[in-house]
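Supplementary Methods S3. Complex input for the 6-O-phosphono-beta-D-fructofuranose-bound model.
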Amino acid sequence: MDAVAERSSLSETAARAALNLSLIQNETAGTTNAIDVRQLADLAERIRGAERVFLSGAGRSGLVLRMAAMRLMHLGLTVHIAGDTTTPAITAGDLLLVASGSGTTSGVVKAAETAVAAGADVAAVTTNAGSPLAGLADALVIIPAAQKTDHGSSLSRQYSGSLFEQSLFLATEAVFQTLWESTDEPAEQLWLRHANLE
Ligand SMILES: O=P(O)(O)OC[C@H]1O[C@](O)(CO)[C@@H](O)[C@@H]1O
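Predicted complex, serialized as structure tokens:
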């Protein structure tokens, strides 16, 4: 490709990237604006009231929950990721926070069943209020996004569960910010809890 063709191709790609940034901004704004904030408030209260918080999600949903878990740890809460080597047994008084766009991912549903059997509370973030996962939950946050197999959905032009996963991130960030603002801890205090073995 000559230099002129290369520049033209780069500017076409840049224009497409700009359009897609807008697409994602608009989709996440529309979807997160449709979240019932009372559900987010209920989730924040349950996190605050739990002895320990366990988190379980698969794939990208699980990765977003790991980011949320880090922030809850920065608040000084005791948090564990289901399936990690050092994660102890969940018991009564604990909260299991699960996220699954479909609400059917088997490992996540199984974790919720185990938590219920152990007497723990379960809070679920999902698109699907009629899913097995939602049926097990004491508290729900419904994110009205496309599910990972809703190809060609009118809810999103993005691939698979991306809109759910992005909205899950924003929703859990809002829960963190709400919990933090209810403390009198400055950022410097939270910073002391940051990993220092990285
Ligand atoms: O949010 P769900 O429906 O539980 O899906 C979990 C994950 O499964 C995958 O399909 C594969 O890991 C991812 O796209 C998604 O993050």
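Strands lie at 53-56, 79-81, 95-99, 121-126, 139-142. The helical segments are 3-33, 37-49, 59-74, 106-117, 132-136, 162-181, 187-191.
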